[in-house]
Amino acid sequence: MAMITLAILLLATVIVWALRRARPQRDLSEVSARVRSWWSMAAIFFFAILVSSRISLVFFALLSFWALKEYITLLKTRPADHRALFWAFLAVPIQYLWVFTGWYVMFLIFIPVYMFLFLPIRLVLSKEPAGFVASASQIQWGLMAFVFGLSHLGYLLTLPTIGHSLATGRTLLLFLVFVTEMSDVLQYVWGKWLGRRKILPTISPNKTWEGFAGGILSTALLSLTIRFLTPFSWRETLVVALLVSVVGFFGGAVMSAVKRDLGVKDFGALIPGHGGVLDRVDSLCYAAPVFFHYVRYFHFR
User: What average pLDDT score do residues 122-128 get?
Assistant: First the structure.
């Protein structure tokens, strides 16, 4: 897996270098920044995943915390929301505590049930009804997307070896992240190359039908090269890769709608060429829960 990623990054680096030499008049600064950032992100990700499970969980908890922070920072919050926001951020380590202890039921219901009930109560105690519905909705949605959704990445690590295969939660996590991120990249590449017809022009003008089709199909084929990380047959690998790619696409589209509504281009500026952390994990917010529950339902019943 690491060797495949290294090969892809080397190929991308060579292509950018060749394009700079062949067409020096073209502005490739954004593409170059994206490739350099991919090198850094790949190194950090593999280090966090391969060292130990505890470091991996801390890494994903920080990922959820930072994604929630980028989102909350862009909201127009009220002074009355501050104590509720404290509890919202405190929910991050608590959610990952359920992952660490393997308490599956609490992992599933803590944010959708208990935080859903508690946060409005905390807002009510602030005694400020104006803007109550907007605040409660925005905070809970952020918790669901960026903490509950992304925490499924951490829970994947707890899954044991599946059947007679060599697949574990860790290898499935690598498969999910590889497919999701490659789908994003290949949709971008195909869209730049052949994109003509826009899918959601008012939401995400850069997304085209050509990029969507080319990206998910080429990702599905590429997923066969890492099928050894999964318990899937080659047919199931194609189906799962297509499912993850399509769900990830809609995750990115939803986050684009959020940015449009908030009037920003990116959620942050931490990653050159990509924006913020949330701009890089937007697809995983949707793909991770769907993939996790697919695997758990069909391979752990």
Answer: 95
